[in-house]
Structure formats: structure tokens, C-alpha cells
# Entry
Amino acid sequence: MKSCHLCKTDYENIKGLVGMKTAAEFYGYPVGRNGCCICPFHQDRRPSMRIYPHNRGYYCFSCGSGGDVITFVSRLFGLNNEQAAVKLIEDFSLPIQTEGLTYRERREREKKIRLQKKQDQWIAQAEDALRIYWILLCEASRNFADPNFDEALMRLSYIEYRIKCLQDNPGEFYEDREAVRMIGKIRERINSWYD
Ligand SMILES: [Zn+2]
# Structure
């Protein structure tokens, strides 16, 4: 492992680029649909570690350990924070390098990080839209006199499937123009729901 000096921005970028869920799963702790995984820091039989969305870290309800993706890796492998950060950079081939960068390389790296942030933001908003629509459909499906009852029956399982697609493979979802168009339509639909 190479030694290097990382600055505060590098730590922030690592947290922005490697989601907590991605890291947990990469190191062998699959996260269930309820957002929990087996806690590696105590003898855990049932998943009691909650993995929070959008890089808000983890917290174990049994042993109380919590932190961000860097803390997770440092504890898991017995490393200090800097070593853990370097491990993440290497394991995920992150575009973060602290030595011998030319001006152009630095610009390219910043651009890549910017694009990634834009994508993360879009994905978070798309997930919100899908969830809101899903809740509206659930409500409508319970009452057959509801004006949106038919729509709910027709769309519910499809929307559930789409939420799963988005969670399983956010990058692919973002690249899929059809999916992006669908999210736009869902936003419009949410706005006109009670009209
Ligand atoms: Zn624990």
C-alpha cells in the first residue's frame, strides 16, 4: 500500500464516490431490503447494522458502533483513517491521487467527481419520486372507489420493480434514457395526482 498525504477534500470525495451500501457489500456484508446487514463488529446473528442511504454512514443497534465508510473500513481491517482511505481508493479504483498530478489530470479528476455528484443527486431525487408515487398508488389501491384505483392496480408492481432496479444498479438506471423519461413523467403525475 503506497503512503500518501490525503487532504480533507480527498476524504469528502471518497465518501461521495463510495456509497456505504456499496462498500458494505463489497467487503462481504450484503444489505437487505430493510437496509440492514450483519454487523462485523460484534457476534451478530440477525442483521442489526443499519446502512443509511446517500452516504450517511452506518449504525449498529446492538453494539452501538457507527460512522462513515472510512471508519467502517478502518475498523474492519484494523487500519488508521489514512490507510483506510487509501484502501478504498485502491479497491474502488477511485480517481483520487495525491502525488505527481499534472494540471490536466487534476482538472479531469475534478470533472469526474463533479459528474459523479450530479449523478448521485439525480438518483436520490429519482428514488424520492418513485417512492412518493408508490405511496400514492398504495393508498389508491386500498379503496376501490378511489379515482386512481385502476392506475394503482396497473402500476404498483411495475413501480416496485423500478425501485428495485434503481437500487440495484443506479448507474445503469441513470444512463437509460427511457428510465430518465419515465421519472419525468412520474414527477408530472405526482403533481397532478389530486387534481
Ligand atoms: Zn454491532
